[in-house]
Write a structure and sequence with these properties.
Two copies of one chain form a homodimer. With about 350 residues, the first copy, chain A, is an alpha/beta fold. The first copy, chain A, is built from eleven helices and 16 strands. In chain A, the strands form four sheets. The first copy, chain A, has a six-stranded mixed sheet, with helices on both faces. In chain A, strands 7, 8, 9, 10 and 16 form a five-stranded mixed sheet that branches. In chain A, strands 11-14-15 form a three-stranded antiparallel sheet, covered by helices on one side. The longest helix of chain A is centred in the C-terminal third of the chain and has 20 residues. The mean pLDDT of chain A is about 95. Chains A and B meet through α5, α9 and β7 of A and α5, α9 and β7 of B.
């Protein structure tokens, strides 16, 4: 698929430097990216197999993927941390343009000084114009299966939240115990947990936990990106500590309704912005909900399209996205709900176990 | 400290884009970096307080740090994802050079296309020449205290490994249970676990777990970077499933000896390369051990100096480093040991609970 698109775009090669980009083309799955010390490179030529240009410490594991052309140097090398080897490899496979992801959501995972050095080697390094982003947005059935499995893990963990969260439990302890539930239910790791617990809704949905104990009247929200076999889920659940107020109950029901409306609409050919607009009509009567109301999902917690008024991306079968409506309950107090769906030829498939309109009471 | 060094270097400002860089100057601690969608910027001026230029979704949490000048835009904005606001801010605080981390272990966390746009605004964006790296290498007592606490968490988890690892236990289950132990003992999250279990040593130390059950004669190695309050530990432990062979026992004792020799030598003024050489003498008689035998540690799993033959960095009081000797037991089979120490005016302080020469037997 990549080489077909590269041919149309007139690219002789792609140069990739980040974890999801390398893994997408090689299957190289390793936690070692947590160490910023060493750069890693993958060169995807216009024809033939990709070439890995990587620190020697990664060679044994890369050798267990389908990649056979693995070129290594002993990193960190203060004199030349792979730039000469990379230059030589790029010259070998590309006489013309080499595409590099430079747009939305991308970054270059190598020191800028080394990038500048690479730019001086007479290579034609050009933007990939979103080529890799577009490829990754449409998942294979194998990829959807992995995301479905991870959603199942998180779903089972969410179902067990009443075991770990009750009045008096400090929020940071709930966060820890929730991660443990995820691991127990089969997550390989839990790179993302955010949430809040405040009376009648919360102020934001991305903060880490404080130490305040849950109190009657709080709405507890837990949002998680767990990973199994390299693929993320990303959805949340809201819980009420004791019975919810009528305002909270209504707001939650509205979120579930917005999710349903968006899911009903989510067919191939519909634009991302239309899903935003459909949810916003339910949430505010079309006044404009702040923020984005969903996004693509896969090898990263968020990737690809955004459900915002300016995103004209058309849905395609195989895309996996989140629906993430938010609503104001009172000034400074919001509720946010999130589910994960796969776009299909007909109705979308819910990958996360769909929440009911009634909040679970703790 | 930063502004003193900036004055000497003739910098009007620093421009920072990555998680540890922003957190170092602000205390902004959030898991949300897992989402690649939005860039975040911090401008540290030559005098006065830093200015945060960030997506509006992060304003509530940034508002709870000591930073008061917080400028936001609604990201993602497909027309201009913060570049105009950042340009305006940089122009306001800097007429001359703006330092950007561009060297070893750094990257720029914003799309290259936006960086190119920023470069065309007539600003003088220059390398920071390792200024931020050098600042971060020397920890305050508060930082050392946090690393000590995290080492304590991992130490308690390692002490409980016999509860979760025994003959017949699949390695991936051991990895999951080990993360759960870390959380139970007080880790906020566990972003790094690597290891292996193979007879008489292992092939590499950075791979994820397979499903193979532990077998008698295996050496199980678990290496972890847990985080508590934003600071990492990074050390490992080796376990023998059943009694170790004499070769494995001797190799492990040699690793412990190498660690002791390096720790005895680790005083202010000694160079990183000297610690490498001292360990290598114990490990190979000075033939040269492949890879690096330790590194700096702090807000990242690995940061700062490397214990390699070419690193001339002199140790300073307050530096926190790992000692990580590795040894070949037989062809293709190695053992690696790791401890964390703080450099002091006299003998270094062991932050990790020091392992004994005898491997723990499962």
């Amino acid at each position: 698929r990549a080489q077909d698109v590269m041919a149309k775009a007139g690219l002789d090669a792609l140069l990739l430097t980040t974890e999801p980009e390398l893994r997408y083309f090689t299957g190289f799955l390793i936690w070692f990216w947590e160490s910023p010390t060493r750069p890693w490179f993958l060169v995807v030529p216009a024809s033939g197999d990709p070439v890995a240009v990587i620190p020697s410490i990664g060679a044994p594991l890369m050798g267990r993927t389908w990649i056979t052309d693995i070129r290594t140097w002993d990193a960190p090398d203060y004199g030349d941390d792979g730039v000469a080897l990379l230059t030589e490899t790029l010259r070998e496979v590309a006489r013309g343009d080499i595409g590099v992801p430079m747009g939305l959501e991308t970054h270059l995972r190598m020191p800028l000084a080394d990038w500048t050095r690479l730019q001086r080697q007479g290579l034609s390094l050009v933007p990939d114009n979103g080529l890799v982003r577009a490829l990754r947005a449409v998942k294979s059935e194998a990829e959807i299966g992995k995301i479905r499995a991870t959603c199942g893990v998180a779903g089972r963990a969410f179902a067990r939240v009443p075991e770990i969260a009750r009045e008096g439990a400090p929020l940071d302890a709930v966060f820890r115990r929730f991660q443990m539930l995820g691991l127990e239910e089969g997550a390989d790791w839990v790179p993302y947990v955010a949430g809040a617990a405040e009376p009648g809704g919360y102020a934001d949905v991305i903060s880490p936990a404080g130490t305040k104990p849950l109190a009657r009247g709080d709405v507890l929200m837990l949002d998680t990106g767990m990973v199994r076999d390299g693929y993320f889920c990303d959805f949340d659940r809201n819980f009420s500590v004791g019975p919810p107020t009528p305002e909270v109950r209504d707001a939650h029901a509205r979120l579930i309704e917005a999710t349903s409306v968006a899911a009903d609409l989510a067919r191939p050919g519909v634009a991302a912005m239309e899903l935003y607009q459909a949810m916003d009509r339910v949430l505010t009567g079309g006044q404009g909900t702040p923020g984005r109301l969903g996004h693509g999902l896969g090898m990263q917690l968020t990737e690809g399209l955004s459900l915002i008024p300016s995103d004209r991306t058309e849905l395609e079968p195989g895309m996996v996205i989140t629906l993430e409506p938010g609503i104001a309950v009172s000034p400074g107090r919001i509720l946010v709900h999130e589910e994960d769906i796969a776009i299909r030829d007909g109705v979308p498939e819910f990958l996360s176990p769909r929440a009911g309109a009634e909040m679970v009471e703790l």
